[in-house]
Amino acid sequence: MKKMVRLFVAAELPEEIRERFALAQEEIRRSRARITLVGTKEMHITLKFIGEVEGSRLPGITDALGEVTATPFTLDLGSVTLNSPRSPRVVWADVHDRGACRDLAAKIESALVPLGIPAEKRRFRPHITIARVRQFHPSLLEEVAAISTSCPGTFIVDRFLLKKSELTTDGPVYTDIREYLL
Prior knowledge:
The chain has 182 residues and is α+β, with helices and mostly antiparallel strands. It is built from four helices and nine strands, in the order βαββαββαβαβββ. The chain has a single domain (4-181), classed as Cyclic phosphodiesterase (Cyclic Phosphodiesterase, Chain: A), CATH 3.90.1140.
């Protein structure tokens, strides 16, 4: 049986940004919705979800990502919001991208397509997931609205990482495979 690995490419967040979202999570926790909070160490911006691949493909993927070039850029955090007001599945923080994050994601995508990794069909929208909604309750709208302006911030993206994701009963466990400096 072939060993499979679940992979994604991410931009990391500075610790002070993660701490702000941990405070926002405390407010969200007060809602009566059933939610699963994302651990602060696991918070990131997904640039490309690769998915399950054979472990033998890992060297080709790491080499292809090593060919991606970009310059460091700044991202501004937006408000904490829901992915959908009618049927929310995710509480996330918007990220205001002036185009550099989208361009980096497109370069990563282009580097991986020749390896048989399909391009994403949805438009890239950078965000930071802070909670997943298991069962919605209207009180969640009130709690999210109360924190919508409490998490501003700016940070520099000067690297991206290839990460392995192992799904466990306690949530995903992420392991850094390789870091790529911009």
